Amino acid sequence: MSTNIEAFLTADEEQEIVEAIRQAELHTSGEIRVHIEHTCKGDATNRALEVFHFLKMDNTKLQNAVLIYVAVEDKTFVIYGDKGINNVVEKGFWDSTKNIIQSNFKNGNFKQGLVEGILKSGEQLQQHFQYTDNDKNELTNEISKG
Questions:
Q1: CA dihedral sign, ordered 37, 39, 43, 44
Q2: How far apart are CA 120 and CA 128, in angstroms?
């Protein structure tokens, strides 16, 4: 575990992010996860895709999982949505979410950026993937680290 990742978010901030994921998923069948690692070797989007598969996020029933991938040292992040989402949303669907995260990150507000980005993702997902009574949480809400 890199000390840099530990410095990125405190344990309390991590819990606030996990709670934001829980809140965001209340109104959608979509699944949201956050993965944080020290650095990304190569292209961040390709790495986000690798992590997405490694975390088995491509196994959701409606293919509606979203990964927010952060490479701390590289100061980069990627929002990666599965096929089920990308097939139904308009181009630029994630732009408002990216902008929220980016403006917070630029000011050093990493926890706030992730919380707001997660809640915005939940709103976006809700438009296309309504929560149903028989919906179950298919993926853990815990932050994964690389």
A1: positive
A2: 13
Domain count, the chain: 1
CATH of the domain at 39: 3.10.310.50
- CA-closest candidate to residue 74, choices 50, 45, 32, 99: 45
The answer to the question of residue 65 being in a domain is: yes
For the stretch 102-117, pLDDT in tens is 999 999 999 999 999 9
Sign of CA dihedral 119, 58, 87, 37: positive
Q: Is the pTM of this model over 0.85?
A: yes
Cα torsion through 68, 55, 138, 13, rounded to 10: -50
Which helix (H) or strand (E) segment holds residue 36: the answer is strand 31-37
Query: For 15-49, what is each residue's pLDDT tens digit?
Result: 999 999 999 999 999 999 999 999 998 999 999 99
Q: Which two tokens stand for residue 33?
A: 């996860």
Contact 65/33 with Cβ under 8 angstroms?
Answer: yes
Compute φ and ψ for 3, nearest 5 degrees.
-65, -25
